[in-house]
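Bumping with the actual sequence this time:
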Amino acid sequence: MAREIQWDDVRVERDNAPDLTSGGAQWTTLGPRTWSVLRDGQRFKVECEEGPDAEGNAVIRINGVRRAVRVLDERTKLLEKMGMSVKEGAASGDVKAPMPGKVLQVLVKPGDAVEEGQSLLVLEAMKMENVIKSVMNGQVTEVPIHEGQAVEKGALLVGFDA
């Protein structure tokens, strides 16, 4: 499966094959989590220190400089390209619909204290059930949706006080 690694304004694709040319970059395996990457005439030594975690965050060294990067799989890249990032609304704490869909189940109510990663509701979209989770700790201030309701992308699902 192809993955895209992002840091600063650089995006480099990577496949699971040991040595390959992908996305304009040539990857050569140097060790279990170390590669030499040739891209646009520049050579990078890439060493993975931590991750990637469930959100695709990882810590790597690029030519000895430690960096936080995002590693996106094909599904995540497609969702972000379509503008359906689950992280939308995270800055305010409010949870907004990442895509149009139908609310199947509401799991919280105003006044509930929730933790990061806690399930808030189930949204059916593109014939799939998606569990929408909290991206932060906080208290629910409003739940303007109800079970069976159709929502558009960007609609407020759960309001928060951080």
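The tokens above came from a reply further down the thread. Residues 74-81 form the longest helix (8 residues).
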